[in-house]
Amino acid sequence: MQRRLGLILSLTFIMILSLDPQQVLATMSSTNYQISWDSVGVGGSDTASSATYRLRDSLNFLAGDASSTSYQLSTGYRAGVYDRVADFSVVSQLRSSAVAALSATSTTVTVTSTAGFSVGDYIVVVANEGEAQIAEMGQITLISSPIITVDAFNGAGPSIDGSNDLVYRLSGSALNLGTMTAAAVSTTIIGWEVTADVAQGYSVYVMEDQDLRNADLIAISDVSDGTVSVGVGEYGAKSSDLTLASSTFDSVDTALTSSLQQVASRDNNSFSTRDFLTLKVAPSTTQATGSYTQTLSLIYVGDY
Ligand SMILES: [Ca+2]
Ligand SMILES: [Ca+2]
Ligand SMILES: [Ca+2]
């Protein structure tokens, strides 16, 4: 094996001398980075053209794979080409799209009207909207009024009895909590989908630009006791991902802060994995009136 490796390197060296290319050094890593592949430049492009000619060329590379217990070697033309895919899309609950849900199965929900819903839309089914609501997210694959079918829900399928159960479309980036009152917990949902060809997985993090506050800078306090309750004057969120390593969004209502906090994670390659954050707001009986706003940022990070 050593003889073969030596042959490859010496041939490469000859090409470097004759073509005077940019030289790139070897594959390397440390505790905080990894360069999986690099290449030795051999000069020129593999395509060239003008008004009167077109050329496709490549140098004649040695090709093949070799390995032992301690190394792996692939050689050949573009042997290291591997375009990693990471796709992250965020959608928010569209308050104006609400329709009542009458019943549900593991992949369907029967509604009072399918107007405004289309195949491909993301929806969230909210059972018993409010303080103790349970929501599930899916993507519409079929509409046969009054039944909406999704590809899959996050959970086993919504538990619907037709009382205070709603379906919303998830679309766009604006969240609207409507008119809040001290007599109820107002809720809204931010959903996201990740496709990541990353072997170690990914995390999604959330941060706020400021507390949820009005023009007089009066805020609705961050929840601190794990539960957003009616009339208390507190604000927090909970994730649909129930296995978070570095935050409490998986288990209790948690305060949004200006620091990045984990709200979803996977530990291997992911295809169209979804999660959502349920925001819960409970103004106090003495809460100042006004329009309360903030900007939330969601960030995808691949784990390399
Ligand atoms: Ca219900
Ligand atoms: Ca806050
Ligand atoms: Ca509380």
Task: Name a few traits of the molecule.
single chain, 304 residues, mainly beta, 2 domains, three-stranded antiparallel beta sheet, 6% helix, 38% strand, binds calcium ion
The overall pLDDT, averaged over residues, is 86
Q: How are helices and strands ordered from N to C? A: HEEEEEEEEEEEEEEEEEE
Bound small-molecule species: calcium ion
For the largest beta sheet, what order do the strands appear in spatially?
7-8-11-10-9-12
| Main pleated sheet | 6 strands, antiparallel, barrel
How many angstroms does the end-to-end distance come to?
A: 30 Å
The amount of helix comes to under 10%
Count of DSSP E strands? 18
Structural class: mainly beta
Rg (CA only): 27 Å
Number of spatially distinct domains: 2
Number of helices: 1
Overall geometric form: elongated
Give unreliable regions as ranges.
1-25
* Percent range for β-strand residues: 35-45%
Write structural notes for this entry.
- By secondary structure, the protein is mostly beta strands.
- It has 2 domains: 2-75, no CATH class; 86-302, no CATH class.
- It has one helix at 2-19, and strands spanning 28-29, 34-35, 47-49, 54-56, 64-67, 72-75, 86-104, 108-111, 122-127, 134-144, 147-150, 166-170, 186-196, 202-208, 234-239, 261-266, 270-282, 296-302.
- Strands 7-8-11-10-9-12 form a 6-stranded antiparallel beta barrel.
- β3 (47-49) and β4 (54-56) form a beta hairpin.
- The protein binds calcium ion (CA) (3 copies).
- One calcium ion binds next to loops.
Topology:
Blueprint: H1 2-19, E1 28-29, E2 34-35, E3 47-49, E4 54-56, E5 64-67, E6 72-75, E7 86-104, E8 108-111, E9 122-127, E10 134-144, E11 147-150, E12 166-170, E13 186-196, E14 202-208, E15 234-239, E16 261-266, E17 270-282, E18 296-302
Antiparallel strand pairs: 1-2, 3-4, 5-6, 7-8, 7-12, 7-13, 8-11, 9-10, 9-12, 10-11, 13-17, 14-16, 14-18, 15-17
The structure holds calcium ion (CA) (3 copies).
